[in-house]
Amino acid sequence: MESLKIAFFCWESIYSERIGGLSPGATYLAESLAAKGHEVHFFTRGSADRTIKGVQYHYVQPFANNIVDYSKSMSDLMVRRFRDFDAPAFDILHFHDWHVTEALHQLKDRTTIFTFHSTEYGRAGNQIGQWWEAKEISGKEWYAALTARRITAVSHVLKNEIMWLYNIPFEKIDVVSNGIYPEVYEAIIDPGRVKEAYGIHPYAPLVLFVGRMEYQKGPDLLARAVPLVLRHRWDARFIMAGQGTMKYELQQMLAGLPVQFPGYIPDSEYVRLLNASDAVVIPSRNEPFGLVLLEAWSARRCPVVADVGGLSENVTNFTDGVKVYLDPASIAWGINYVLSDPSRAAAYGRNGRRKVERHFLWSVVAGKMLDVYRKALQ
């Protein structure tokens, strides 16, 4: 395929404003496309323009009193910056999530791709929100899906969700998963030393949760599973890392139990904890894809995952992970199953790493996205 000139529109990247899984998903895809010889420009929030790993970043600084108006301000500024670089013209305009819908609207006559990384319905924990922001955001998602030439979703489950929510035809949506650089999550460490740094006995099993402390991510389900795990494994210890509106409630619920809440942890410490853990739990109520799953597999850890969304789609039960119901008793059973046989858990982790190397390397994912671009250009 001849070299393309590609514009990304996304409200976050890993090098400026980083909020959640959207930033690595968009950033690493852009870098992988640049590595294949394409000219990639990335319009996002930040201060001074720069080029990183072949991707040209163009920054804007929006301002508003609420997230909806803020996103409109950001989109207007992005389009203004875009026009400064649109000669020769961009071949592909790729928009990521609802925040940039206003930019898509202004450029709708071009060759446009819109990627759903999630939906407002899913972020609300499988609820159609009745508050004004939820209605506005859902409306923007519907409009973006209607307007873009082609749509991509990060899993088949998310594709079905978009079709159901917004009445989008099956043939307009392609599934292109997220990817990963697995070597980033490998670390040669002494697990016992890492555990001791948190006051945990080096031989005690460590159960790890990393994510936003929000209803969608299900930390309350794990919290209610903790006493059930301890009935069978009194020596189990838990670390629940991340921030969010549920954190204080969870701390109160688990007071006196062997659970630590370190809050936000830097990437380097996350990799250490990941490689020291004996089970990684992902109890999300809605998970369009689940980057933590790929990170656990990259570190050859065994995941215990809710049987939902991209987690259910990607995990082969009792081969590279354990699926559980959205129920504390089921989550506790899955954790105890993994902790009961470390050699079996290690085998599941190795199988997961092999799956990553077959299906989820960023070079593979970028190739699939280029196929979508070809369809859009026809």
Automatic annotation (TrEMBL):
Domain named Glycosyl transferase family: residues: 200-354
Gene Ontology molecular function, alphabetical: hexosyltransferase activity
Domain Glycosyltransferase subfamily 4-like N-terminal: 19-183
Pfam families: Glyco_transf_4, Glycos_transf_1
Organism annotation: Methanocella arvoryzae (strain DSM 22066 / NBRC 105507 / MRE50)
Protein name: Glycosyltransferase (Group 1)
Gene3D superfamilies per record: Glycogen Phosphorylase B (3.40.50.2000)
